[in-house]
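User: My collaborator and I are trying to settle a disagreement about how two of our proteins should look. Neither of us wants to argue from intuition anymore, so we agreed to look at predicted structures for both before our next call. Could you fold the first one, then the second, and keep them clearly separated?

Assistant: That sounds like a sensible way to settle it. I'll keep them separate. The first protein:
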Amino acid sequence: MIDINNPAGRYYEILRKAKSKGDDLKVRQVWAQVLDEDESDDSTITRKVIEVYQLGEEVKRLIGMNEGVNKELYLSSFPQIERAIFPLQLNTTWKAQKQQLNDGVMTRLQFCSELLSSIYNEEQLKDEDLAQVTKLIDELFSAVLSSSLDGGIRITLLEEIERLRTALSMYKINGAKGLKQSLQSTIGMVVTNQGELSSVAASEPDVIERLGKLIDKVDSFTAKVLKVHKALTKPVQFLIGLVTDNDDSSPESIEPEGGAEP
């Protein structure tokens, strides 16, 4: 069984689904179906296919880090895989590009997944976990949008919310690593804008509360599945000076399985 919880396994599973599609489908239809997108949304389909290509680059990088393996053999099929992805001509039929994904290509990609499974350890977020984060993102977006915040901090918050939303939409491609990177960006935004966010807490406390819950939930989930420490050991309110070490009002969190307590 292919381990889809490492980059090569996710890459294999995406390409396996694409390979299973009918020859006469348009390229647009194939990728829309594989990546769960609307067939009419060319922009999002293109962006996600580019992410799939970047996932392949990540696999090549990770394989290249392994000493004592025949890297040329493991990676010999990647030029064919890349020809199956690009050029991305959405209106052409899938048959020609699909032919690049022959059994030999897919088998070698299975070997890549097996190799990485011994060094790459990640669990799968459950659908209900993803639904929880989606709900928190939507609620925070609505709260910021309906708030009376000044333009600068309002735009900054909306940009970070959309960054997390995009990372969530790319989860099946990039796994929890993409979410973790977006979380780190959001935490950086909080640190950089401490003064402005303290003012937001005074005028729109609901926004800060929802922001804190979202950051804590993403932090807890990604720490759990990646088996690492949480990025934050204190609530967002602590970062912007609204609570102290003695305050025990930190949001509910999930402790990482198999890791040290945060």
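The second protein, kept apart from the first:
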Amino acid sequence: MSQITIDSVTLTPEDPAAESSTARARLGATRLLRTLLRNGKAVAGLSIIVVFIALALLAPVFFPGDPARITSAGAAAPSLEHWLGTTTKGQDVLGLTLWGARSSLFVGFAAGILSTVIGVLIGLSGAYFGRGLDEALSLVTNVFLLVPGLPLLVILAAFMPPGLGTVIVVLVITGWAGSARVMRSQAMSIRGKDYVAAAQVSGERPLRIMVREILPNMASVVMTTLLGCIIGSIGAQAGLEFLGLGDVNTLSWGTNLFWATSDGSLMLGQWWIFVPSGLAIALVAFALALCNYAVDEITNPRLRRPKHATKSTAATTVARKEEK
């Protein structure tokens, strides 16, 4: 029977530690998702996100045609005909908000996913291979972390052609470094585990080890980083477009706020024009933050609360009173 000896620890193919390490890693993400669905915060956050995605997808059904078409109706407060009122150009605010959700959510999720993927690739590569590659990747990461994010966003957006693709590229360029640093730190701690060393000695390829042995054990960190990147991307896109650095012809929550400012809605007190888009950004960020906190609550032992902690405390208190 073949044996693998690592640091005075002998693992055989029949050893439960050798057999179950990969199985536990595969089931890590699945168990995390199942636990999330039983968490109240996660369910609330996911419900809000699903509602916004559904409304964004159904925007052409509720408001067919061009929602940005200018009419002679003028600004009007919310009514039965226009639930969220109209802008100074006669545009339906609810239509602008629903259509704007399509662009804002797409950019936020696309930029967040790409930033996380790049961070995972760079973090895993640097932590696993180490030495020269790790030093080079860490140097590049530190440079991007030291450069102020907002000025870099403004400069890149100002000199690149307007469009959703440009916004996504700008957000990815300025958002991957933080996730890469977190991934590298987590991967470094996992790389020293026995099952990773056993996989190396057994002759598995580096890519297979990183994908099947290290990455599944980082599921909670990856999910937390992803949610944070999505929140940051949605807010950064809205900020860029509010400053007029995005494509003002594209409907999004940021451009809605930009036109509300340009048309003087803030100065005239026409709250129904700018509040819906701002509130939508806040609600989506709040929903993602709920999911983020739920993941942290599930994976962080310090935040876990025993199910019967309250009952045990009450029983102990009653017992002490009876003894007195």
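Some points you might bring to the call about the second protein. The CA atoms of residues 37 and 43 lie 6 Å apart. The radius of gyration is 25 Å.
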